[in-house]
Request: fold
Amino acid sequence: MDFRTETIQRYLTHKLGRPVMITSVERFSRGTSRQTWFIDLDDNGRADTLVFRTDLAAGSIEPTSLYQEYFMYERLGHTDVPVAKVLFWEDDPAWTSAPFYVRSKVEGSWNIPGFLDPDPKYDDLRITISKEHISKLALVHKVDWKGLGFDRQLSVPKDEADCAHHYIDLTMAQFEEVRGSGMPVMLEAAEWLHDNAPPAPCVSLCKGTNGFGEEVFNGTTLVAMSDWEEASIGDPAADFAFMQYLAPELERDGRKIWGMQQAIEYYRSISGIPITIEAVRFYGVLRAMRLIAMSEKAGTATREQPAIAEIRQAWTGTEVGYICRRALIAALGLSDPPPASALAELHETIEAPL
Amino acid sequence: MITVSATDLLKIVDATLATKVEPSLSDLNGRSALATVRHLLNFVRVRIEREGQVLLDDNKGLREVLEQIAEYHHAGGDTGDWTAITTALAAAPISGAGASLDEISVEAKALREALHKGLARLQKMRGQRGNEPAYRTIRAAIRAHIVKQIEAEGELVAPAFFGRGPRR
Reply:
């Protein structure tokens, strides 16, 4: 899709079957995996904003397809999970050379003012947001994925004991498909994970990457869960390992007031699902492996299509991959982990500096 | 002789981006891309300065560990595995004196691929041989090389990126 105002205006007028006036076209600056465009329009006197999602010109860094992401939104629209309403999928070559889909925009922001400010006056806000997020994750984990047909797109482990093994094998298969060169640390890590795989408490729909920067908040309410490209079916503990910032470790006057342990206890109190901190650490290693697969895909795009790859793919293909490899050898007990500050910097943006 | 080096040029390009280009950008996407560009320019500078030796050392270590794997298979009578590893070693290009960074990288890529596949073959033997000292020794040698290689990678990444502000 060429995101010029005139093209989008022609397209939406055709698609909606009524004339609309485009008032603004803006590419969302955050996000590394795919392109997100905000299209403001005047629809018969009513202001509206639509969100267009499409792959990067040189391909997404995700191992999963754009269609799967669309499918997730469509299916989740039949659940209690808060998500933006998906409107339509488009792959008609008359309109676009690359598929895209369109969804409505939910009022709110990925940013939570004060959340990252270390001032203790924001601790209550941090805990409130954390509980809100966890309660929404519990909704995801309770989704009847079989009844709603999520298994038409997502692969399914055989049972609770198979969840971790299935996810390791899936990740390694995705990695092998995209790796740019030999990376034996991935084989070592996969073997170690198979040896230490915990059984899951249940087989759940899992969101994948979640937390700060991935969801839409309006005040302290999570109004839309976003970024479903890493969704899977497996152990809900994975979502605690894939969570960004929203189970912050808080200590005041020598007393622990919140953290991952408190977060999983709260989660159990509302969902009845027992998750262990060991399982969360286990899936943290798998997350590093998944990020390495994405880094390799981004690196391949950089090498093979430098004229159209995005500069952010070059970064994902370099520093991000290194940090994760470093995390893997640390998890295997072979070296020190990357500095915590370096991990934090990966999530830092010019809009939200640390 | 041009006395302004490639790294001198990268430093002045980066300073110009910071002082002349960045202040003139009002678009968030442009500023975000510029932040990434500056980090990557810095990474290129560090790699020009250090990567050649890092790769030469790593390639030497890779050849040593691949030869150890070949010896292990030879001693174990694993003819097919021995052939696979020795063939890969023989096929990997050898960077001569004066080789470019790209040429040394091609050698590294071939050797890393050989180690990846060699380890995958060894992992398949773990069920039968996992407790044998020779097996444990070769696996430990591979792990030691992996750690050394990743730590050496850190000598390029850390000074280029860490503590230098948002990447995007």
